[in-house]
Each structure stands twice: as C-alpha cells, then as structure tokens.
TrEMBL record:
Protein keywords: DNA-binding, Transcription, Transcription regulation
Domain of life of the organism encoding this protein: Bacteria
GO molecular function, one term: DNA-binding transcription factor activity
Family the entry assigns: Belongs to the LysR transcriptional regulatory family.
Protein's name according to its UniProt entry: LysR family transcriptional regulator
Coiled-coil annotated spans: none
Leader sequence residues: none
SUPFAM superfamilies documented for this protein: Periplasmic binding protein-like II, Winged helix' DNA-binding domain
Source species taxonomy: Bacteria, Pseudomonadati, Pseudomonadota, Alphaproteobacteria, Hyphomicrobiales
Domain (HTH lysR-type): residue spans on this chain: 6-63
Length: 308
C-alpha cells in the first residue's frame, strides 16, 4: 500500500472552506487566490485517490469519503497547531478563571482543558461549572475571566453582556426512551386531562421560560413536577419517569432521548445561541489562547457540509 503524506496547508484550506461555507471566502481568509485554493483541493483529491466533493445545486457537498477526510483533517490540524503552540508558548504562565455551563461539562470541558494544559502546563486554570445567571454575574463582577453561556434569543440582552457568538444549538424536548410519561402506545398528543409534567431548573431559567411559553401557545396544559438545582437532578427525575424537560442534546445521557413529532409536543423551537463572555479588563496571552481553543472546539460539531 502506497503511503500518502497529506499536506497540512492543503488540509487547512480544505477545512477552512467547510468552516466558512465557501472556498472563495477561505481563499480570502488564508491570503491566497481562489485558483490557488482550487489547485490545492485538486491535489487533495489526487492524494486521497477518490472524489471528495459532489455537485449540490450551485454549490458543493462532501462525498462520504470527503466527510471521512474532514474528520481526520480537523484532528490533524488540531494536533499540528497544538504542537506549534506547545513549542512557542511553553513558557506561557498565569492564572485563568473560566466558567462554563453544566451541559458542556462532560463533553466540551475535557477537550478544551486537555488541549490547553498540554500546550501551556505553567498556566493554572480555575474552572467553575454553573448556570447562566451565576456565570454572567461573575463575569460582570470580574470574578471570572472567561465564560461560555447561553444567549437569550427571545429577549434583547444588554450590549455589555452580548458576548461573542460561537454557535447556535437546537433546543429539544428530552424524555425517557419510549415516550412521554403516562402516554399510551399510539398516542400522538399528551392526555388532555393530565397536564404535562415538567422537570425544570429553578426560576429564572431560560429553558423553563421557553418551555412554558411554547406549551401555552400550543394550548398544552403543564405543571412543574420536579424542580432541580443541578443537571444531574434533571436527568435523574426524567429517568424515573417523573416528567420531561427542554434542553439541548449536548451531554444527553444514553438512557434519555430527544422527543420528536410523535410525542405531540411542539417542535418549532428557537435556536439557542452559545456565547463567549470575557471580562473587559482581563486580556492577556493566556485568556487569548484559551478563547482561541474554545472557538476551535465549538466550531466543529456545527459546521455546514455544503459549500459554495
């Protein structure tokens, strides 16, 4: 079998085009001509020995081989950039106070902290898992340097707390596998004489507000069956069949499921912005690098696979 050494620069153009949704924008972003990027993509297909793109209307979409290569290309670039960062920033030192939503604690946090710690072992990170209100309060009072928090798309946020947009995440109804609590096989609607039991965080809570307002508009009766102070408490109550909740699918335990139209619940739900907040007074090399890793980690799961 002939061994192929993929060119890192070519892979970077490939991934950047997918991230930006256009290889013309990728060329501008990378400081190359569009023809140069096109030549790189042709070279990449030759190295791969298979077609990576297919026509999709006026744009391009990835073939199955292209999707596979994209996954590996991101990993190769991340490792390459981590190695460069480790060599150039090995002496980066300091202290960063970082806050993140509980939902991201088991999925995103290990990836972010692992990459940062390997590249910058002399920098100490203090991490706090908390709810939105607590994170924003601590950013405002400069008790945290950085925080990833949900944005409220249904209400206008103060300009000072707008944050940097990282991604839009779909809200989903979450329940036990098998359907709604008390729902009989074949039922498509919650029982009219039985209010839908909800498992929610204590108010104020963005998800709680969206859930109750959405159900009210749909004419579905509801009741707060369980109030929890932690995400683990929500999952435990839902697992026990005590109700359903509204969250995202990030970090969703395997024994729970996102409920679709078959549940009879309204599925037209607002997208939830994920924002990066920084204390204005705290801008240094350590916080800049951690912010960069956050952006890279959050961009990957939500990228379009069709490019112009």
């Amino acid at each position: 079998m002939r061994l192929v050494n993929f060119d890192i620069d070519v892979l970077r153009s490939f991934v950047t085009g997918m991230e930006l949704g256009s290889y013309a924008r990728a060329a501008d972003h990378l400081g190359r001509s569009t023809s140069a990027v096109s030549a790189q993509l042709k070279k990449l297909e030759e190295q791969a020995g298979t077609a990576l793109f297919r026509r999709a209307g006026r744009g391009l979409a990835l073939t199955e081989a292209g999707e596979t290569l994209l996954t590996y290309a991101r990993r190769l670039l991340a490792l390459n950039d981590e190695a460069v960062s480790a060599l150039s920033g090995a002496n980066l030192a300091g202290h960063v106070r970082f806050g993140v939503q509980e939902d991201l604690g088991e999925t995103l946090l290990p990836q972010i902290l692992g990459r940062f710690a390997r590249a910058h072992p002399k920098t100490r990170i203090e991490t706090r898992l908390a709810r939105n209100a607590d994170l924003l309060k601590r950013i405002a009072s400069a008790e945290l340097d950085l925080a990833i928090a949900w944005g409220d798309q249904t209400r206008e946020a103060p300009a000072a707390m707008a944050g940097e947009h990282l991604a839009d995440i779909a809200m989903r109804w979450i329940g036990p596998r098998g359907g709604l609590p008390g729902q009989r096989p074949g039922d498509r609607q919650p029982q009219p004489d039985e209010p839908l039991p909800l498992v929610m965080f204590e108010a104020p809570c963005l998800f709680r507000s969206v859930a109750t307002e959405t159900l009210d508009r749909a004419g579905i009766a509801w009741r707060i069956a369980v109030t929890s102070t932690s995400l683990a408490g929500l999952w435990a109550a839902i697992s026990s069949g005590l109700g359903v909740t509204l969250r995202t699918e990030i970090g969703l335990p395997g024994h729970l499921a996102a409920l679709g139209e078959e549940s009879g619940l309204p599925t037209r739900l607002p997208m939830l912005p994920l924002l990066l907040h920084r204390t204005q007074a705290q801008h240094n090399a350590a916080t800049d690098r951690l912010s960069e890793i956050m952006r890279e980690s959050l961009s990957q799961p939500f990228l379009p696979k069709k490019v112009a």
